[in-house]
Amino acid sequence: MNVYFDNAATTPMRKEVIQSISSVMGECFGNPSSTHSYGRKAKTYIETARKGIASLLNAVSQEIIFTSGGTESDNMILNCAVKDLGVTTLISSPIEHHAVLHALEALKKIYNVKVIYLNVDSLGKVDLNHLKSLLEKDDSKKLVSLMHVNNEIGNILDLHKVGELCHLNKALFHTDAVQAVGHFKFDMEKLPIDFLSSAAHKYHGPKGIGFSFIRKNSQFKPFIHGGSQERGLRAGTESVHNIVGMHKALEFAYDNLSRERTHILELKNHFKTSMLRAFPEVKFNGLSGDDLSSTYTIINVALPITEKKASMLDFHLDLKGIACSRGSACQSGSNSGSHVLNNIQSDQLKKWPSLRFSFSVFNTRAEVDYVISSLKEFVN
Questions:
Q1: Are 205 and 13 in contact (CB under 8 A)?
Q2: Cα separations (Å) of 56 from 17, 49, 287?
Q3: What domains can be seen in the chain, in order of their start residue?
Q4: Which residues of 81-123 form beta strands (DSSP E)?
């Protein structure tokens, strides 16, 4: 049996998305910047998708800027906030995605801005009292960047609480919502968020395409120079078929959200119950074992086995046709381990192997049972 439980890394495309992409690739090859009929047709596809995505988020279409994915979206927002808006203090957490962490460190070196990391407890919860004290500390222009759903441990951030705290203190708020868009509803008219990042391949769309939500009248200047595409912020000929595919994927995700969420949450709970029955000493990292405080798509487990035995775990799972992740997929091949787990785990748990299992609507209870039995076989 082959089991794919690494949906937090990327998801398989829905057949409906593949069909829409293929259709556009076959019938629409014009450059969207051209004024003839071929170009106008391509431009119509793009703007229809932009309006559709904006509508799904209760945003204004001009606030949706297409990018190559979450990493570019994060970099665009953080860089432009410093360069164009005069932000001199950046506040984040040590368990963000590297697209944010590495961008912050680069901005610190290049522009000499202050970067401050919030305290995080052993469950991966960000200390909002620490945030409040930092926001109130001085009158410097600040931006807070905190992810909505952590990509490794699944913790959910209270966007309303953080956003209101930021705006009360006249700070900007950016959220990396790559693991959240398509899995949770967003009402950008009501949410106190200035900037948001997203990537289509996390909700059964194509890779290489995403979008930034940039609140209107933000005063951002071009991030990529060249033509006037994407409101002048991001030059370059648009990937029409991928933009259409992203819109289709997001539309499908939200049309079926309630039904698919129920199915996936049932799988996660079945996995959790089965793990506890098979390994009573197992620990769930962060808040991933808590249905109310973590996403229904991710669970991260620390297995009570020796370091020596753990060294063969990846090989065993791969041999069994099981795809999951040791920490985050963006870390694969690295010997440094997960920076998220290094920041929150006790010394004892750091000795155990941790595995992230992430689910989608295409997974089944039989797959969960197969994974549990394979783990039992390995341990025993």
A1: yes
A2: 17, 11, 28
A3: 3-12+257-379 (3.90.1150.10), 15-255 (3.40.640.10)
A4: 89-92, 114-117
pLDDT average, residue stretch 171-198 = 98
DSSP string, 21-60: HHHHHHH--S-TT--SHHHHHHHHHHHHHHHHHHHHTT--
Query: Residue 206 corresponds to which amino acid?
Result: P
Beta pairing, strands 210-214 & 195-199? antiparallel
Residue 375: CB atoms within 10 A of its CB come to: 24
Query: Could you give the percent of the chain with pLDDT greater than 90?
Result: 93
- The pLDDT value recorded for residue 101 is 98
> pLDDT value at position 306?
83
Yes or no: say if 289 and 268 are a contact pair by the CB < 8 Å rule.
Answer: no
Contact 318, 332 (CB under 8 A): no
Q: How many CB atoms lie within 10 A of CB 241?
A: 21
Handedness of CA 99, 207, 244, 159 (dihedral sign): negative
pLDDT value of position 332: 47
Nearest CA among 135, 153, 86 for reference residue 113? 86
User: CA 185 to CA 176: how far, in whole Å?
Assistant: 15
Helix-helix angle 15-27:240-255, to 10 degrees: 150
Q: Is 330 a catalytic site residue?
A: yes
Segment among 24-28, 128-132, 241-245, 346-350 with least mean pLDDT: 346-350
Element spanning 355, H or E: strand 354-358
- pLDDT above 80: residue 335: no
Angstrom distance (rounded) from CA 226 to CA 324: 40
